[in-house]
Amino acid sequence: MSSRERILRRVRDALGEARGTSVDVPRGYRRRLTEADAATRADVIAMFTERVADHRATVRHAGADDLATSVAAALWAREAQRIAAPADLPFGWLSELDGVHAVADTGLTDLETLQALDGVVTGCAVAIAQTGTIVLDGGRAQGRRLLSLVPDYHLCVVHADQIVGTVPEAVARLRPERPLTWISGPPVAGGPEARRVEGGHGPRTLEVLVVED
């Protein structure tokens, strides 16, 4: 008897007669925020803002009419000169830029070029108030996954109607076959001596612009 056969035999013996039977998985978890958590849409947005800030990301709010100005102000504050943007990013989002050159990514921009840029501006697919998470799925205004991983600064525009209360609500809006990127603040890795290292596998700075239409 080979080592593989011995291991499989031990597994079968451990499972006993129950092997091969289906087990009901409890699905009674809470799918929506309760009224005590967030009684109104304003409360949901406020929770999202608070949780994103807890993840050491910067959160700003703007009205729909002020979106372009707010994007420009965020980039000027970082003294950004060249940024990446998905090719289908709405033109109006960048219409107030002055002194900042936007490089439209068509999927051909190489890694070295992206690394040399000062940041990236994208939209998102959905955002989650309970966890302060933003989800990108490569859809409109989001571009390919590389855009949200390589540049050192990520400015993400989140419209208020994209914010849901819980993870199950977000999953219901998403298509699992799409390339999903879940972002909860700047990425963190364990550095030497267990020190916190931000930006180990993504931008060190995440800024979220919540647009209240």
TrEMBL record:
Superkingdom of the organism of origin: Bacteria
Protein's recorded name: LUD domain-containing protein
InterPro entries found in the cross-reference section: FTHF_cligase-like_sf, LUD_dom, NagB/RpiA_transferase-like
Coiled-coil regions, chain positions: none
UniProt-listed Gene3D superfamilies: NagB/RpiA/CoA transferase-like (3.40.50.10420)
Location of the LUD domain: 113-211
Species annotation: Actinomadura miaoliensis
Pfam family, any one: LUD_dom
PANTHER family, A to Z: LACTATE UTILIZATION PROTEIN C
